[in-house]
Amino acid sequence: MRNLLRKAAELAGGRCSLAISFEGEVAIVEGPAPAAAFGEDEPGVVGVPIRFDELHSGRLFMLMDEPEDRENHTKILNFISYSIQELVDMEYARRSIAEEALAKYRELALFHRSVPNINTSLHMRDVVNALIDECRLENYPGELGMIFLLEPSRKIFRLAVQFGFPFGTYLQPMVDSVLFHEVVASGRGEIVNDLEKEVRWDNELPGLGSMILIPINSPNRCEGVLILASRNTGVFEAAHRRSLSTLASVAGISVSNAFNFEGIQKLMNAILQALAEAIDSRDPYTAGHSERVAHLAVAFGHTLNEAGGYRGRVFSDDELREIYYAGILHDVGKIGIKEDVLTKRTRLPERRMDVVRARFQLLGQFDGFDWGHAFEQLCGVNKAMVPDETALEFVRELGGRVMRRNGTTLRYLYDDELENLLLSYGNLTRDERREIQRHPAESERILQHIPLQDSYANLLTIIRQHHERMDGSGYPDGLKGEEILAQSRLMAIVDIYDAVTQERHYKPAFTRSEAMKILRQEVDEGKLDSDLTDFFLNNIESIEMLSEQVKVTKGTHLSALGNLSSL
């Protein structure tokens, strides 16, 4: 503008001075006259208005050396003012375009940066925390913040996360305000820079001066509301609303996806839980085993994480959840095991012992055989977990005894009965034990048709390997050492621990100290991972306590274990 004034003064032949004022103050002077000479009431001074932008204005002044030539000077003044106004308008337009382009660039940069940060997880806690972190990263005004999310089933907004408020502050009254409801209903953000004058605000949260409310919208509904607030007034601008709306639009899709994911997780958890209960219900003595193993395994894994991990490796939330589901489903293959094998409580079932009793009684009438005493001893062997050698020798003698009458040979015990009664340990024959040992591979076969997420890539392997042993004596594949996943080794430990500490039809429940001795013996025999077992035994009390917390959180909220104080 100074150059323009200089050219104008030359055009006037040096017979006038020119000046431009801004908001009442003379800012530029061209010509011999001082700035003080350009008052509105000064003789020989004429002025016309100039608009710099929507808020600021000024005037163009001319001080005529020859007042009698006023007409020509006025024409020059009007031409100069037109030129200056055009220059100002073009500059204003250029700056507006530049500011708009810069704002769009910042919005696009914010969008590109926030998308990977907010979309990195399908867990709601991670999504809302990432959104809050983005707000802090952008350094928005407002020392307080809240995010409320809609509970779809109840149509109620609940506080998901907050910052800046004193611990224990009850923020739920926010959702009762007319202002909150209107933002949700309209789907548009609002800035209120003086809450005291806002008719839609009834001081639901005392002490706030200003607030910006941004709906978190998905294509289907308002998923929640992001709120930044300050105890001061007048701190928020339209630019803040634009950029926060960009963040909220990114978060809206992520929140919707997280809601859907958690819904699927709950459904999956319910289905798998029902499946596990169906398995456990086949034998009342094993009821709840799968669930307890899942809880103990997750608690074990989390406690390992707190101590720095297993050989430096820390299990992620997804891996902990994978361990949880592996625990729930590790015995699902028992669905394919025959009922009389799965629930076998004695070496011979009761109905077969009734047949043996009737046979003994019949033979005793002709053979001078003390069948009552013999049958009593046989019943003792039938119920024993580890019968003594004297009792087994008695069974062998009975097996070799026959009665011949009228050309017919009658045996006291038949081969299949002897096979069961002469077992040195337990009540399962070799074929029955093989059938039981099929269940890990059968579990994998049953579950392989379920479309599992990529984050559960090891689930079937953990299930298949949970009966493998470090020395290769396990089943179904006889794997050794590092061939067995760490998660599978962990699962093996808690599976044994729960099995021996619960009552079974063939034994009473062992105490914790007795169970610990059994696990140490398994380590001494080279069957269990020594490092994992030692850690489990050294932390057994805290692991059992934490397993009770896992029981409350279930598989859909295991990320809550990341902060035990929140449980």
TrEMBL record:
PANTHER family: CYCLIC DI-GMP PHOSPHODIESTERASE PA4108, CYCLIC DI-GMP PHOSPHODIESTERASE PA4108-RELATED. This is HD domain-containing phosphohydrolase. Pfam families: GAF_2 (PF13185), HD (PF01966), HD_5 (PF13487). Transmembrane segments: none annotated. Coiled coil: none annotated. CDD domains: HDc. InterPro entries: GAF, GAF-like_dom_sf, HD/PDEase_dom, HD_domain, HD_GYP_dom. Residues 264-552 form the HD-GYP domain.
